[in-house]
Write a structure and sequence with these properties.
The structure is a single chain. Helix 5 packs across helix 6 (about 115-125). Helix content is about 50%, strand content about 10%. Mean pLDDT is about 95; it is low at about 405-415. The protein is globular. Strand 7 (about 165-170) and strand 8 form a beta hairpin. By secondary structure, the protein is of the alpha/beta class. It has 16 helices and nine strands. It has a six-stranded parallel β-sheet, with helices on both faces.
Length: about 425
Amino acid sequence: MNVLKKVYCRVFQTAFRLAIPLLPYRTPKILHTVSEVPELLHTKNIQQVLIVTDPMIYAAGLTKTLEQALKNRNVSYTIYEKTVANPTTANVEEAKQLYIDRKCQALIGFGGGSSIDCAKIVGARVAKPRKSVAKMKGILQIRKKIPLLIAVPTTAGTGSETTLAAVITDSETRHKFPINDFSLIPPYAVLDPNLTRTLPPALTASTGMDALTHAVEAYIGRSTTRETRAFAIQAVQLIFGNIEKAFRNGEDMDARENMLNAAFLAGAAFTKSYVGYCHAVAHSLGGKYNIPHGLANAVLLPVTLEAYGDSVYKKLKELAVAAGLCQETMDEKTAAEAFIRKIKDLNRAMNIPETLPNIQSADIPALARCADREANPLYPVPRFMDAEQLQRLYYAVQGDVRHAGNRNSNTGRKTA
């Protein structure tokens, strides 16, 4: 990356970091069971809601408890159950029309990050009916209060229940892009571990590693605060201590609850401090190949941390010490390597692959350009990479050692 672009990116990021105390961030109020939702709606005089979920959640009957609770309180509801794994602009438009046709007054995002993200942008389209989803891309393009949104996560990973972000895929171009606005932070989140009880082991693993990626990228970035650092550390500790337990025994409700809390904390950390190149690359892969976001992050995280080189050694050591992986006396490089090795060990223990072989070499230059546009200048990464350098991450997780072998070539060199 050329010097002028680096300077522009750092100035842009510094302005946002300095503005953090002045911006209207908020932490959602936590409900502990879905049975609390109808009373909340009643206090707000809401009588008709749209539940946004996906086919698997609906088919598994996970919404039944909420449906019955709403019926018991005479709250009418409509269900949109067509949300796909990487929610599309078509999903948003279908659900928005259903919201309008049924005269709904509030939204409940019920499921993983895809359903919650879809519900967020449905709310944005209701609030700004003349503005297309594409024109909401980026930062603060909504700037208007959306209908009441209650997030009910059924996975412990995305943190969408606490963030200002939503990620949507254009139905026609397959381009996946983030939308960031304070109005998208849900006022309420339901953290009920019983809703994650039936989550399959593979999804428990990948969504949990997604939460870990949020915490780590938020912590190693250059726009942290004392609060976000504390949230990230606590999230890492909870994930390292509970993810394998939840993976191996889905009935371990203590582990499930701890993972839900970790995802919430990690989300609260990255909604202020942002993420990094791991997410930018993962988003492009999700849009192009429909690779699940958590899986992409899990595979990319150790590769990306290695590519950052010595720019992250100090902070990774801090995380390693906090997680009990090493002593304070260990040197930074060795401690950072121990932290990265722990991530690889977790992936291996939970059968997460080291590569994503569906990536086509011919697509990589365009994918890298998309990641570059998403990350620079927004993400306060510890070390800059341009589109050409980002290509190495794709080749690394593709398994092409000919191109990925020099991905650490910047290690040891200081950058802006």
